[in-house]
Design a protein that fits this description.
Layout: H1 3-14, H2 25-28, H3 34-51, E1 57-61, H4 69-85, H5 90-104, H6 106-123, E2 132-135, H7 141-151, E3 157-161, E4 178-181, H8 184-193, E5 195-200, H9 205-219, E6 228-231, H10 233-239, H11 242-247, E7 259-262, H12 265-282
Parallel strand pairs: 1-2, 1-5, 2-3, 3-4, 5-6, 6-7
Helix pairs in contact: 3-8, 4-5, 6-7, 6-12
Length: 284
């Protein structure tokens, strides 16, 4: 073989076309390969959750900015000190007000942690994995719910998403049950495929998006019947005037029965248990 032929052979071995398709990340990242990537994001978690014997889940949503009380106090003190240096700065005064409101909601972090612990302790017995706490895997309320399961010595699931700003999974998720998604649609599907309940704590756009996605699917009977529990009546009734929607005729009165309110972890858990007990007793 001549040196020219040897060079050409090496070029062949180094060419992207010669790389196995499954190992060619540049090829898999092409726009026209999007259907394949979406299929992989559907299949991978489905297979691994099945292998881990995750039979059913309870999904917990809520804001990333609602943190444990000591952290909320620390953040408030930091912005107060900053504001004290420029007391006439309206932007800094606004930061203080917002930090005060986040501190006022620190109890929701504690409640989400207690809820995760309560459900996990009651449902993960003798290796069975029912009603496994599942979150978006990030900070805030998601961290709290995963933390509750972790402190109970139980499994929990985290469905993380790649975002323009870096996001890391919280440290309380079961490592074998933490997944990373590129597509919001696939992530949403996995939230609801095994869900036996949805508990929604105060949050922002992302929380509202996930709540209304589930409400729409329930409203149209496109998913299994599950209880949807809104944690914190005062918050949710200010954020969304559900009664107004019914009064205006844009939703049916019976659609107000698609969700319940809860104020404590125990009340949320009782609502979920009663829902499924009634569903079981009504079966022929």
């Amino acid at each position: 073989m001549t040196s020219r032929e040897q060079q050409n052979q090496q070029a062949i071995l180094n060419s992207a076309s010669y790389t196995l398709a499954e190992l060619d990340t540049e090829f898999l990242g092409r726009d026209d390969l999007r259907p394949v990537r979406m299929q992989l994001e559907l299949l991978k978690p489905e297979k691994l959750l099945t292998e881990q014997q995750i039979h059913s889940t309870i999904v917990v949503f809520g804001g990333t900015q609602i943190v444990e009380r000591e952290e909320a106090k620390r953040r408030l003190e930091a912005v107060r000190e900053e504001s004290a240096q420029s007391p006439q700065d309206a932007t800094l005064q606004r930061k203080v007000a917002r930090a005060e409101r986040r501190l006022a909601k620190a109890g929701y972090y504690e409640a989400a942690c207690q809820f995760g612990k309560l459900v996990s302790s009651a449902c993960q017995i003798n290796g069975e994995c029912d009603y496994v706490i599942t979150t978006g895997g990030g900070p805030g309320i998601m961290e709290a719910a995963n933390r509750g399961a972790y402190e109970a010595g139980c499994k929990s699931v985290g469905l993380n998403i790649t975002l323009p700003s870096e996001q890391f999974p919280n440290p309380y998720i079961t490592p074998e049950l933490c997944f990373q998604f590129h597509y919001f649609a696939m992530r949403k599907m996995h939230f609801l495929l095994r869900a036996r309940a949805l508990v929604v704590f105060p949050g922002g756009f992302g929380t509202l998006d996930e709540l209304f996605d589930a409400l729409t699917l329930r409203q149209t009977n496109r998913m299994q019947a599950i209880p949807i529990v809104l944690f914190g009546r005062d918050y949710w009734q200010q954020v969304i005037d559900f009664q107004f929607l019914a009064d205006e005729g844009v939703i049916a009165d019976e659609h107000l029965e698609l969700f319940n309110f809860a104020e404590t972890p125990e009340e949320a858990w009782d609502t979920i248990r009663q829902f499924h007990q009634q569903a079981s007793s009504s079966k022929p």
